């Protein structure tokens, strides 16, 4: 379960970090990473602002990379692929394992940079970083086990298969989990023998470069992992590059659709982890405390900016009263403020644009008949914090046709709906174009299995929500994406199978 972990630091140290955000070396150093070192773009036509979400201050301007920079990164990756792909899986795995240990040793530095990028609470950032190290470690262990199959045939002949890497992989990440995007995509790619070029979100450019430095320190050859900073155009240059064999993207459905169309032109491999509007179903026999905890985990982590969030909370009518009372009481206790303070549970929304989007959805919900029973307001926790803080919002009187129930909001907005029967709630839960995740809270094991089997989603949680144990595949159905991340299945999406037939007898031909 997600929780503050052993790496919590004291309040006074956290205050010191906040006072030097603009002068942090992670902010001021070059943010591209090529040939094993930081560098500035050579082909930049424009710049974008790097802002600290909690204060809304511009920490610096970051030059956006152009065609020459992308060509250089992909060219280096293509050249490095020749040697990296020839190493044994055991050798590649050792590099990944060493990288994981370096991240663990530098966890606090990574977590502080993640807060500067995202505005999420420091305890949550620490937990995220520790999970990224575990994922890299996991694929380091799997690297030596990547193999094919042997099939004996008649007359002593046989066939065998070989799993081979694809080549240069291009990765594009979203802004809610910056290091997770870079590590979940790069570590399986590298474990399989591919090389990797990554473009972080322009809102969160810092920790992907730090990952490159950790890879370098661990012994990854130069050119195997590169970071190219930029906006939409830079991403398009990567996805359309003729020497990129696969693209792994996390983000919105419209952007994912465009990337898939681009990749189709060159028949590139593609993995897409897209949006969600997931259901979280609370049955009448559920443990009430656990159900409330699960609903909060399903909606309020990272200021609600999580693609798998269970934002459609279906509550059985018979327990609606006590469930809502406990939920509101606990939500009001959540503390909003400086993300670097250890007791804060709600940080800053990533940007003004995202804040405006969230507030607009709340207003639309009111106009369509929903009622706000908690939160949904901008909060000014401290005069020094000029960012956009939103109190976690709970909406009731929601109906399936409402905009707030159908659209992905990507903010701390929980829509509560009621239901009567199991069949009814399954039908309503599946009535969406998305299929990323779903949650079920019940003490009836047979019901849990039955409902999980019926729900159209790639990641199911029973009596918990938004937990990502390393090794458990993550990905969606329908418009929520293609492919899987974080598990052994992921290796299938970064390799291709070569079949070899060996004849051991005379060749017979009809002519």
| Structural classification | alpha/beta
Q: Give the low-confidence spans.
A: 1-20
Strand content: 15-25%
Count of helices? 16
- Distance from N terminus to C terminus (CA atoms, Å) equals 68 Å
Largest sheet: 7 strands, mixed
Mean pLDDT: 94
Q: What's the β-strand tally?
A: 24
What's the overall geometry?
globular
Write out the strand line-up for the largest beta sheet, numbering strands in chain order: 14-17-18-13-12-20-21
Query: Helical residue percent?
Result: 25-40%
Give the C-alpha Rg.
24 Å
Tell me about this structure:
The chain is an alpha/beta fold. Helices cover 38% and strands 21% of the residues. It has 16 helices and 24 strands. The chain has helices spanning 11-19, 25-28, 67-84, 89-105, 107-118, 122-142, 178-191, 206-218, 232-239, 253-265, 288-300, 320-332, 352-367, 403-406, 422-430, 445-454, and strands at 32-34, 37-39, 47-52, 57-63, 150-152, 158-165, 168-172, 195-199, 225-227, 244-250, 269-273, 279-282, 312-316, 371-374, 378-379, 389-390, 393-396, 413-419, 434-435, 437-441, 459-462, 477-478, 481-482, 495-502. The strands form 7 sheets. It has a 7-stranded mixed sheet, with helices on both faces. A 6-stranded mixed sheet has the order 9-8-7-10-11-23, sandwiched between helices. Strands 5-6-24 form a 3-stranded antiparallel sheet, with no helix packed on it.
